[in-house]
Amino acid sequence: MSSLEKPTACILCECNCGILAELGGSDSRRLLKVMGDRAHPASRGYACEKAHRLDHYQNGRDLLTAPLRRRGDGTFEEIDWDTAIREVSQRLSRVRDEHSGDAVFYYGGGGQGNHLPGAYSTATRRALGSRYRSSALAQEKTGEFWISDRVMGSSTRADFEHCDVALFLGKNPWQSHSIPRARVTLKTLSKDPARTLIVVDPRRTESAELADIHLQLRPGTDAWMLTALLAVLVEEELFDQDFVSRHVVGAESLFEVLKSVRIAEACAHAGLPESLVRRTARLIGGAKAFSSFEDLGVQMSHHSTVVSYLHRALIALTGSFGKPGTHFVPTVLVPLTGGASRRTSPVVSAPIISGLIPCNVIADEILCDHPKRYRAMIVEAANPAHSLADSPRMRQALRSLDTLVVIDCAMSETAALADYVLPAATQFEKAEATFFNFEFPHNTFHLRQRLFAPEGARLPEAEIHSRLVEALEGLGEAVYKPLRDARAIGLEAYAQALMPVLFDPKLSGLAPVILYRTAGLEEAQREGAVLLGIAFKAAMENGESLARAGFAGTPIESAIKLFEAILNQPSGVVFAVDDWSQMMARLGTPDKKFHLDLPDMIEVVRDLAAQGPSARDARFPFVLSAGERRSYTANTIIRDPMWRKKDAQGALRICPSDAEGLGVVTGDSVALTTSTGSAVVPIEVSDTMQPGHVSLPNGLGVSYPSDEPEFGSGKAAGVAPNELTASSSRDPFVGTPWHKHVPARVERA
Ligand code: SF4
Predict the structure, then answer these.
(1) Which of 338, 486, 557, 623 has minimal Cβ neighbours within 10 Å of its Cβ?
(2) What's the mean per-residue pLDDT of the chain?
(3) Domain 142-331 falls in which CATH fold?
(4) Pocket test for ligand 1, best of 11, 14, 16, 17 (most atoms within 8 A of CB)
(5) Whose CA is nearest to atom 8 of ligand 1?
(6) Rounded distance, CA 719 to CA 187, Å?
(7) Superfamily of domain 5-58, CATH level 4
(8) How far is the CA of 176 from the centre of ligand 1 (A)?
């Protein structure tokens, strides 16, 4: 590593691959070159092409440099930080005092690479008494969390490196990754004649091209495909009888329904040859080690929760858990998943899963005269005006709030609606980390040190929350000084002095800020202070896993060792080492068994088996998949359209026969209409699509002050998918949106 190369991580997907960034340019603030960091314990030198474009994020023209306050005429004016903190804390505390903290809603807290803001925001929320929150996870994953919690009491990941049969369900890891070194793993699976790669996707994706079996079903019919697959397993007795008898409760209730499934009919509903489904079932049933992964292709489509249930049933009935090449429960530093709480949302009584309100009801919870409606909102490192369903209505909801405060590094669509915009440091201008740590048996964590000082008046979120909490709570030297004195003696004395704080009901909720103010870390890693508290919790809960990774001792000793390792290893650290033999004990159900006897799910399976997919609305003969991941789409944190080398406007993909029917060719524009809105979009004719199915990429439609004539100053490049989606189109159980199945009409423009 040269002196110009700095270890950090890519922030464009949940893998957060370790990278070495070569810094340079006239002000030394450019990421000139990026390559995979071989010292990173999870990615081991792997990085895809997207990471090379990160300079478009760090040097975006729409980065904020000063706090902004909205004027009476609707424009923004710059204000200093003292004024911003004073006015924001006064306005939010006024809402709390008049209506209770429940009226202050929090959204966001981080994206795929920045989870520390969420950790610090807990102190601000505590100071405001704000209990309701949500994030993009409630757009995508809460159905899977809810089902996993009910079936297994835990969430699982899979060991694709050692399986002999791999299944990706509504998932294109070539582009959306999620598993470490995804492309290497896919290619290895594909090349090995002794291993089988199965991809379920209505589109012939890059992953499907590599697959041994591509189940190219009709959009939205995954539930029928899985029901047929499971019915074959039962009919041909391909399931793992020994595992089921020892570790599964309630399999008989599901078997009873599966035995009544008309397999040929279910395959026909999915548009698949029965012979192919049977062959797939035999391969899965006969696998020595079966690994599977479901993602947004099914989690944002029809019958999403029941598909998650059937997927869990496939894992349980094939005994694909707790041995190499199958599924496991990782040790996590911060749990992001969980089940339903007893509380529901205050206005529409929507379920709260993993602590999150369903994204699709947020506008309903604001746009009403209900006394418990949300009246103020803090949005942090998120962009709900762009990323949530039915953007026009979401904008209306955000505009109607008493107070909207946005904490972000860029002028997003949501920031443009705010009363106050608090400029945050970019992810390379502070220490930052992700809690998407799901490796096994060696699990890893990476605290990235900052590469640059924040530009202008931007501040790390840790500093912003500390100032807000100090203004709201009067927190200050009386609490900080004794801790700073202890820190001057050493980390152990500091940790001992912290104990009373962590167990003090008045102060424990403010601990992130107290740690940030007193841990005395160097500037480049200062925002990592909260990790001492997190390491202590991990040592209390997972002491044996930490000890196997070299962090043995009492919880305090173990936490200090881990904290020091995190600070001293700039490419990441192995924080937990586990063993397959512990897996059954990791199931979170009281009896440590899988529970398939979920009456609500079984009832849906029974109903589906008796009927086919519902007929399409004649006004909208196409199914639009809104939000396809492509080579140059990621999350929306890179707003500069020039980061995309190809497909700058995000073409609508359509199959050759549909294009011919419309009389259009690649590059022509079409009018795309849904029940929510309409857009004109260029098309790409692609034989990867099937008739009646069109696909738009994710992440487009964000505004940017570009000089490029193609985009124009401040104009959005491409179509923002949520201008076309409806918030009412959602899963009936958990409220996750069905963005992958939007009824649409396509016409010549
Ligand atoms: S986009 Fe994902 S897989 Fe690609 S380099 Fe970034 S983190 Fe790694």
Answers:
(1) 557
(2) 96
(3) Dimethylsulfoxide Reductase; domain 2 (3.40.228)
(4) 17
(5) 17
(6) 33
(7) ADC-like domains (2.20.25.90)
(8) 8
